[in-house]
Amino acid sequence: MFRLSPTIKGILIVNVVVFIMQMMFKSLGITEYLAMYRLDSIYFYPYQFFTYMFAHAGFSHILFNMLGLVFLGVTLEQVWGGKKFLIFYVLSGMGAGVFYALIGLAQTSGLKSDINEYMVSPSPENFMVLVDGHKKYFEQIEFRGGMNIYDFIDEYDENPEMYKSESVSIAENVKSSFVTRYGGRVIGASGAVYAILMAFGMLFPDRQLMLLFPPIPIKAKYLVFILGGIAIYMGINQPGDQIAHLVHLGGMVFAYLLVKFW
Q: Which end of the chain is more exposed for a tag (fewer CB within 10 A), N or C?
């Protein structure tokens, strides 16, 4: 019979208790209090680098994170001992949050600056420069009637005065979606769980793991490469994704450094 190790059991209980409180007492704003906000947000406080990893967005979110914690973490705790595993879990989870916050701030600082500059002097030419410089953000904006951002630019170029205010609204929408709310509320143990995966892959690279979807075996080292690659690609190319891929990547980076240090 599969038995939980003491530290894993404690982490699991804390996460489940916090999740139950989130669901039962939503009016108290527990999720908002525990979540990690972007560094330049008025809602950011340093304690959030620790608390964000114990809150979750829904049942499937906590379920898959806790499955990863249990199936991979028990082996690591047996190798390291409970105290060392707990230090690893907390440091890698916090490190993932710091990584995500810093990279997120760097990714959006240029966009924020360029949008603010456009607000001062809106014109078709300046709007085209703004869009060309930040295509991956503006191409995600939805328009009426199946239009895309370049269809709008054509209309804006033909009727500058008519579409100037709309161009400003579009820029403000992009700023709100990818700057103001980027990293606006990050929660979950995913960073720490991805750190556990990285450590497991480093210590037991040829150990066979069974995936849930699809249910096929794969060596730990290959799973690390695949999920790490996905985190890098999605973090760079899908900045507005609801999944915090850079937290995953940050967890793996900090896990690599910690394991090498130890």
A: N
CA–CA dist 61, 190 (Å, integer): 9
Cross-strand pairs, 209: 218
Q: 10 Å Cβ neighbour count for 252?
A: 26
Q: What is the pTM of this model?
A: 0.76
For 135-175, write each residue's pLDDT tens digit.
Answer: 888 888 777 777 889 889 999 999 999 999 999 999 988 88
- Structural domain boundaries, residue 137: 108-180
Number of domains in the chain: 2
Domain boundary among 142, 161, 180: 180
Matching residue, tokens 């699991």: 12
What's the pLDDT score for residue 183? 47
Rounded CA separation 11/23 (Å): 19
User: Within 13 Å, how many C-alpha atoms sit on residue 184's CB side?
Assistant: 12
Residue 256 and residue 153 share a domain: no
Return phi, psi of residue 38, to 5°.
-65, 155
Nearest to 96 by CA among 178, 18, 195, 181: 195
Question: Is 1 part of a structural domain of the chain?
Answer: no
Residues 202/256, Cβ–Cβ less than 8 Å: yes
Rounded distance, CA 81 to CA 228, Å? 26
Q: Measure Cα distances from 188 to 10, 153, 161, 178 in Å.
A: 16, 39, 46, 20
224 vs 199: CA distance, rounded Å? 9
Same domain, 10 and 94: yes
- How far is residue 228's CA from residue 168's CA, in Å, rounded to a whole number? 37
Closest CA to 228 of 252, 211, 205, 202: 252
